[in-house]
Write a structure and sequence with these properties.
about 325 residues; Receptor-associated Protein; about 85% helix; about 0% strand
Length: about 325
């Protein structure tokens, strides 16, 4: 009787522990998996039933016409706005621009206080270098980050595109119109392709035709493979034809192209890693030297040749990195 009680007790403890572990796993990982399984548009629709407000939340506003007419500044602002859109962020362009300016000022103040400036001549010669370095870090750093996010998003979109086309093809073969087929993609596919198709469907719902909606989507995505799909649907929309068969062949072509990209990336992986190491090691060496021995360059800062030599070294470093980048990045 005692043995049976102990068995029941240990069994109850085991079941209780298992239940607690499952609850913790669901809270920590299950919610994340559920959030990953649904795209952002459907997540917003589940919280707010008004589809128009969800559409206005997801759709970024284009820069004003007067800003575009300024010239160079307007072009830079438009380029940054396009980059943010293609990166998938919802941040306003003016906020990102303000962050870049604040980061540039902070870097300038930091470098100005860190570098030893002993005379007026040294101040005049060093200040332009500090300004250029601050601009490269303050504006170039966030821009590179956004470009990296854009490239990752485009790669994921390109990977999802054949599956999305297959969903459309199956829906068309079942007798559904193209609008309903695209709506099915928004329900079945995760981000980024699910939300992008959702925005296109919303635009068609609120007045745009399918060609304009797909062209807007193409501008947001900026992907060559998706351009093929837009052209195919536009031609079929004007002239007619078997759209399901066209898209089915296109899906196979995109899959073959994606497979080729992955093979090329695998074959060039060693060269890309070597290029990254060669690009990072000099920078890490200089930072380590400045931290371990801050006065290492202090005795030669006033030399007129110092700025010239530093400029030549930085120029050769950038040229070398560009050459390595071109050697290990291929156009498919």
């Amino acid at each position: 009787m005692v043995v049976n009680s102990l068995i029941l007790f240990y069994g109850a403890v085991f079941l209780a522990t298992l239940l607690v572990v499952e609850v913790i796993y669901y809270v920590v990982f299950g919610g994340n998996a559920q959030r990953k399984a649904i795209n952002r548009r459907l997540l917003l629709l589940s919280k707010q039933k008004d589809s128009l407000k969800v559409y206005e939340t997801l759709r970024r506003q284009t820069p004003s016409a007067w800003l575009m007419a300024i010239g160079g500044i307007g072009q830079i602002y438009s380029w940054l706005d396009r980059l943010i859109t293609q990166s998938g962020f919802e941040s306003k362009t003016r906020n990102v621009m303000a962050l870049m300016i604040a980061l540039t000022v902070a870097v300038f103040i930091t470098l100005f206080n860190f570098l030893p400036i002993k005379s007026l001549i040294n101040f005049i010669s060093v200040t332009p270098v500090i300004l250029v370095g601050s601009f490269l870090i303050g504006f170039g750093g966030p821009a590179l980050f956004l470009q990296r996010c854009r490239d990752k998003r485009k790669a994921l979109f390109n990977e999802q595109l054949p599956n999305a086309i297959d969903v459309i093809v199956r829906s068309l073969k079942a007798g559904h119109p193209i609008n309903a087929a695209m709506e099915l993609v928004t329900l079945e596919m995760p981000d980024p392709i699910g939300t992008e198709f959702g925005l296109a469907v919303d635009e068609m719902t609120y007045g745009l035709d399918i060609q304009e909606a797909l062209e807007n989507m193409s501008d947001r995505v900026d992907l060559a493979d998706f351009e093929f799909m837009v052209v195919s649907i536009s031609i079929q929309y004007e002239t007619g034809g078997n759209l399901a068969e066209i898209l089915e062949n296109l899906s196979k072509i995109i899959r073959d192209r994606y497979s080729l990209k992955r093979k090329v990336k695998a074959l060039s992986s060693e060269g890309r890693i070597s290029a990254v190491l060669l690009a990072v090691l000099p920078v890490m060496t200089i930072f380590g030297l400045m931290l371990s021995s801050p006065d290492y360059y202090g005795d030669v800062v006033d030399d007129p040749l110092f700025i010239k030599v530093i400029s030549i070294v930085i120029g050769m470093f950038l040229i070398g990195n560009y050459i390595m980048y071109r050697l290990v990045n291929f156009r498919y």
